[in-house]
Amino acid sequence: MNVEAWPKAAADVLPLMGNEAIARGAWEAGVKVAAAYPGTPSTEILESLSQYPASDLYAEWSTNEKVALDVAIGAALSGVRAIACMKHVGLNVASDSLMSMSYIGAHAGLVLIVCDDPGIHSSQNEQDTRLFARFAGVPVLEPSDAQEAYGFTRLAFDLSEQFDTPVIVRSTTRLSHTRSVVRVGDRVAPPSKGFVNAPGKTVTIPANARRLHPKLIEREAKLAAWFETSPLTRWEKGAATFGIVTGSTSYLYVKEIAPNASILKLGMAYPLPEATLRAFAASVDRLLVVEELEPALEAQIRALGLPAEGKVFFPRAGELSPELVRAGLAAAGLAEAAPAPVSIGIEPMARPPVLCAGCPHTGAFFALRGLEARVAGDIGCYTLAAVEPLRSIDTTICMGASIGNAVGMAAAGEKKPIVATIGDSTFLHSGIPPLINAVYNKANITVVILDNSITAMTGGQDHPGTGRGVRGDPAPKADYEAICRAVGVSWVRRVDPYDVGHMYQTLREAVVHKGVSVVISERPCVLDPVKIKGNPLAVSQERCVACQSCMNLGCPALIWSDALHEGRHKVAIDAAACIGCTLCAQVCPTDCIQPTVLA
Amino acid sequence: MSAVPEIETASATTASARTTNVMIVGVGGQGVLMISKALALIGQKQGLQVKQSEVHGMAKRGGVVFSHVRFGAEVWSPTICKGEADVLIALEWAEGLRWLEYLRPETGVFIADTRRIVPPFACRSRRRGATMAYARETPAEVIDKVSEGYALDAAAIATGLGESRAGNTVLLGVLSASMGVPVAEWLAVLEMLVPPKSRAINHKAFEAGRAWAEAAHNDSSLRFDAGFAADVTHADLPEVSVRLDINAAWCKGCDICVKLCPERCLALNEYQVAYLTAPQACTGCHVCEWLCPDFAIEVHTTQKVPMTVSE
Hey, what's the torsion of the CAs at B226, B232, B236, B242, to 10 degrees? Predict the structure, then answer.
């Protein structure tokens, strides 16, 4: 097999973040088409790919992960190497295409990068993509550091073509966002293979699909055989008599804690090399499996009849760490327990993330709270409005769920006004079909589209509503009002969320409208694409009566002043943080918040 | 049988040169990344393996930010274990305290900016005499608890130099005095990380930090800012009871008090008359009294007179 995991001659050495290394590997593999929807921790991969010349590759922010995968599939079937990048929950959206494509294969190299988020740093769950790969019958590679992230991605394209299969490269938050030195090589772009031209393969009518399924099963066996001797499987013989099967960043933790263990390092989590596993198990007196999240390796190894121990010692939920690996090995009697941590006796202060000072969502949700509505939320920065003091979101399920949820709430007979809140990028991602559904089924709901003209949560990416493409090029701009009217919404208003009174009044009118009403809250994000900083406001300490009504905005620029009124803290404004949005001045009952020059 | 060759790993023999662990912590937007990048470059220039790990996403929104930098002959884990950080650099006071347990108890060096970024979460009580839910430990107390600690108002030093945002560079200067790397290398790294127009000011900030640290190394009484003002507490305020009188005959159910009560403890009853839903939540701020268009609400506050026994 003529497949290399690493470049033979190191062309250069670069400090790269895991995601940048993945992008580099794809670029070197000659990828021609790259598509993604932003999602932490995967976002930087396409951002990084879009830094390579447009003559080398076409890159796009797609409207959602399924579209991204469909774009990549179209390119691969047309004969060029293609990549789609997403976070773990993005694969749920793209899964329909993946399940079919697993039957079809690849033609030119087709690689999915899926970044899991163990520990749920910035997601709604910590599902394990390795199980998804097995479900789809698609091989999944698991790099452990940036060097491997680069090498495995490069290799994934070769594998994809050799075995005619989509290949998943699974990263995790810790790998995606760790920077280390990477030896890189040169780009070798294979010529286009031309269109696949095999309708018996690429049209999944039942007659074809029935023939394709057994081929998928054969492919699985071939891949497993290849993995036996591939550079992805590494047997590191140690002095200890016990053996550990591991991969991904778990391998690094094992090396840190048990440098003497015999290790079978697997660069793939599915399918597994059976003969190697059996030989490894026979060479050790105890077989452990160290893996993050689900017992994906452990279950397969135990299914071979091998006495593997794993989740009995290592947690199934949360991110793994060297500490947890040490604790697990200690529980297994194979390592010394860590000394009990020395307590400093200081209770850490709570510092939950907050909406930025001047965030347009603050005005919208402050007004919404006054409405006492039942609110179905969605995914974006505005999930932060679910907690005090804004506390105006009842549910957050997943991308694009809010409008459908609201229809269900109305159908269930909920008495309160029913509102769905959804960001601009999320609306374009998966909010339009449920809006059509709501209109068609005559639901009595209000939809608030929070248009801040950016994909904010992930750090400010462009989307079809921003008027710019991934390379900063001008692009057609989606018109939300026109979209709503086109699908049959007759009641649409556009409001500036910096005008709280107007926002509140508009929402009150919207909820009494029979049928679907849409309020478009229009105001750009204060961070992206440009940082907005206006003249700060100040609180007149003479006139502040310490009612702290303004504190209900949850604005990080509002803090206590040292002065008291009737024993209660007056409020002050951090001038460095305040951008002058005036929301606090609008809610102040004594008009004591004014421009700095007047206060 | 397997065709995979067994590899004798070198890790057990070469791991003798111990890895240096540095944690940099702060609040989103403070420049944690600049310090960790500088450290990574310093490690790299010494020909060492470097791993630099951080978490993006939600943390950006004013939340907790931390970065782990590890360098040595061979670095495996991207993260540092509790009790194994050689240096902990905090760009914000309470954030430094949050991660103290990561410091090596016997040898760890703690470097903290005494600057406080108070989260809205810490100012959530409207009650009389409420105290801010912010760390109450003073630099003197904390420096006493760690093996080697430095606490300075880096942000103020930077502001004095004319660039309030260069506090992280001041801290880098302080750090440089604890590591055996020549000043020229630090300055070269700094040059790579800051834009040309702010090079001069960052250079000055670095020198100021280094000078502060050198003085503090020589005289341990200079290791913290003695003038650090702890929060005022108001435990001595007399207790007050609050009573809300709502004249039902005058209330027309306009909802103004309900919508504008800061504590959200008013509501309309079935007769569309305002009532207090949670008397214990009312702080007696008078807002409802002032805003009621029909003068239907009166707020009475009575000072509770403590029982005293006269001698």
Answer: -170
